[in-house]
Design goal:
Elements: E1 4-7, E2 10-13, E3 18-24, E4 33-39, E5 46-52, E6 57-59, E7 67-71, E8 77-82, E9 91-98, E10 103-105, E11 109-114
Parallel strand pairs: 2-11
Antiparallel strand pairs: 1-3, 3-8, 4-5, 4-9, 5-6, 7-8, 9-10, 9-11
Amino acid sequence: QVQLVESGGGLVQAGGSLRLSCVNSGSQFAFYVMGWYRQAPGKQREWVAAISSTGAINYADSVKGRFTISGDNAKRTVNLQMNSLKPEDTAVYSCYARSTRDNYWGQGTQVTVSS
């Protein structure tokens, strides 16, 4: 089974930092990619960042230079260090994992950045 649980969201002022974490509490953890999406009210879901099983990392243009994604070797956790936060970063952030068989999603954690 796969159970993805996010944590670390909260309220922060513009320019501040937050660190999100996604933990797979299930028994399956062999993923070829894990990453993060976000969705603001009234907006389409936006891909944010991903890390592959080889360690390759990609970011959306909107977060390049500000966010850093990382994970442990077993890919049981994936983190998102968010620096220089902007009000436009306000959204529910959800982690995801992709295996050779299926796609999995966490429940999401709220990030609110005040101006």
